[in-house]
Design brief:
Blueprint lengths: L2 H14 L5 H14 L7 H15 L3 E5 L5 H9 L5 E6 L2 H14 L5 E5 L2 H4 L3 H5 L4 E6 L6 H11 L2 E9 L2 H5 L1 H8 L4 E9 L7 E9 L4 E4 L5 H12 L6 E6 L5 E4 L5 E4 L3 E6 L11
Parallel strand pairs: 1-2, 1-4, 2-3, 4-5, 5-8
Antiparallel strand pairs: 6-7, 9-12, 10-11
Helix pairs in contact: 1-2, 1-5, 2-4, 2-5, 3-4, 8-10
Protein name: catechol O-methyltransferase
EC number: 2.1.1.6
Organism: Rotaria sordida
Length: 288
């Protein structure tokens, strides 16, 4: 990401939002994402799921892996009491500097601690640096290839405790399949999916899964699935009343277990899926 992009976003925020008003800054960043250029943050629509997770857990300590330009940490700060410790790690100094400036403008800079470092180097020092034994809530949204290794590092160090809730964005697209397999194939985890849209996109619909660790920790995940998987899930979700036709469709390489809003599970493995439909017509993307 170029310096000019960061500068353009920052200038837009400073010009169009109210000083000291976190909600105004959040809304302005969302406006930029919708009207100027899509941003690689959780966005306003997926952000509501993050908000709900925070409200459910009511954490006192929060860790974010991947600050980017400060949107998610700002959003989390807006949802939590002022005495909540929020630590966020960002490897890019320019992105961290932009995030700091945005946090200052929003009036929350004193509530968000930005660590500029690589996550696997920073994580081992967090307990002493911030005088914490563990984190109540963890949001993962950085380099996808580091999801699993950082997750295991957090486990091994003990920063994930009984009741810790973890939200991981974009686990299917761009993709963190090793993280998905680790969490979903562990018998101690259970997962549910919630429908949403890709950040700053009204048309690309995908499923957001919530995986829960049944014994010691609670894990929530969010993802942007591949278009085929997204549309297949959406079709299944909307056609549960009756079944007249079953088709087999080639899928992407990922194996996912979906669950609709009413709790009905739809399981499929990688490569192929059986889809139940309420009529005899295939959807356009299933033809051919």
């Amino acid at each position: 990401m170029s310096s000019s992009f960061r500068k353009a976003l920052l200038n837009f925020v400073l010009k169009n939002s109210h000083l000291g008003d976190a909600s105004s800054v959040i809304n302005t960043i969302d406006k930029y994402g919708w009207t100027q250029q899509a941003l690689m943050n959780i966005g306003d629509r997926k952000g509501k799921i993050l908000d709900a997770a925070l409200q459910s857990r009511q954490p006192k300590t929060v860790l974010e892996l991947g600050t980017f330009l400060g949107y998610s940490s700002l959003r989390m700060a807006s949802q939590l009491p002022e005495d909540t410790l929020i630590v966020t790690i960002e490897i890019n100094p320019e992105s961290a500097a932009t995030a700091r400036r945005i946090h200052e403008h929003a009036g929350v800079a004193n509530r968000i601690q930005i660590v500029v470092d690589q996550t696997d180097r920073a994580i081992p020092h967090l307990n002493k640096q911030f005088n914490v034994d563990s984190f109540d809530f963890i949001f993962i949204d950085h380099h996808k290839e580091a999801y699993l290794s950082d997750f295991k590092l957090l486990e091994n160090i003990g920063l994930i405790k009984r009741g810790t809730m973890i939200v991981a964005d974009n686990i299917i697209y761009p993709g963190a399949p090793d993280y998905v397999n680790y969490v979903r194939n562990n018998p101690h985890y259970t997962s549910t999916f919630h429908e949403s849209t890709l950040e700053y996109n009204r048309h690309l619909i995908y499923a957001i899964p919530l995986a829960v660790y049944l014994k010691k920790r609670i894990v929530a995940e969010t993802n942007a699935d591949r278009r085929l998987c997204e549309r297949i899930f959406l079709h299944i979700h909307r056609n549960t009343a009756g079944v007249s036709t079953i088709f087999q469709v080639e899928l992407c390489k990922h194996g996912i277990e979906h669950e609709s809003a009413n709790g009905d599970p739809f399981k499929y493995s990688c490569r192929k899926i059986k889809i139940s439909m309420t009529n005899d017509r295939k959807l356009p993307f299933l033809r051919g």
